[in-house]
Amino acid sequence: MEEKKKVVALLSGGLDSRLAVKMMQNQGFEVEAVAIKTPFCDFDCGRGCGFEIRETADTLGVKLKTVYLGDDYIEMLKHPKHGFGSGMNPCIDCRSMMFEAGKKHMEEIGAEFIISGEVLGQRPMSQHAPALKTIEKESGLEGKIVRPLSAALLPPTEPELKGLIKREDLGKIRGRSRKDQLKMAQEFGIENPPNAGGGCLLTDPAFAIRVKDLFKYIETPTTNDIDLLKIGRHFRFDKDAKLVVGRNKDENEIIKALALDSDILLEAKDHVGPISLIRGKNAQDHIEFGAAITLRYGDAPKDTPSVLTIQKNDAKSEVSAIPALESAYLQYRI
Ligand code: SF4
Question: Residues of the chain whose pLDDT is less than 50?
Fold first, then answer.
């Protein structure tokens, strides 16, 4: 029997990349998937964090390789060559990095080309025709990226010119409506198709403000700094120090887990309330104010002092404070 030709798919948990895989499988290709994680996004575009990527790959019957773009991604985010979208989302540079990772896998397994679930005109920054072209160029994959859902609307790719795929088998989907995709999902027997993703965390305006603040004051943030951005209420005291106040029990636990030896943790001793973290080289100077803000978000009485524990590394001490007035700290909120 003739061996099937291989194709690499950039797989997210979303519907579009699943459909792209199905289309290629139906055309006789063996598809292997690459799923990309970044510090801001679990998989591909689409708020993929909740999607079960392994399960998706299993259901599709494809091998899965997960690639984590960590420090390189953070480095890129400092000065993305193609700029940002409406938030802090460097979609073109981000997609180029994702395709580059896919290209590596393509070369490793001797695949013919690479596919993705991108749909022409679906996303403002990275899915209009010139952007798709730029992404191909930047990732060194000119002519080798097939977007099966929209490929019949795009210039022919290398595999099409070589006769590996035919235009009549490719999709003509354009824009943000999901009508065609949902119809295809039904035809392919995809049950419970996931909702459309809205882009990763970097597209979220409130989160983008936090990211901008972080990059303004820290030249190269760590993934720990970034994980901290995803939770709590944030306050910038000065160029060196910030405070993060947990919003619930889970966040309190995460704050404790993310605390570094140099961070200061604050918690009311006798009242239910948040755990807070002060990070920065002069963290020590902000304990009293941080303590007052921490009490404000808990059950401590408004007008009398309460005691908080201060923990730095393994050393514990105490401080007493009165809950801060909103007018005193709102200006520091990020
Ligand atoms: S929304 Fe943009 S920046 Fe975020 S993962 Fe998708 S392509 Fe990358």
Answer: 44-50
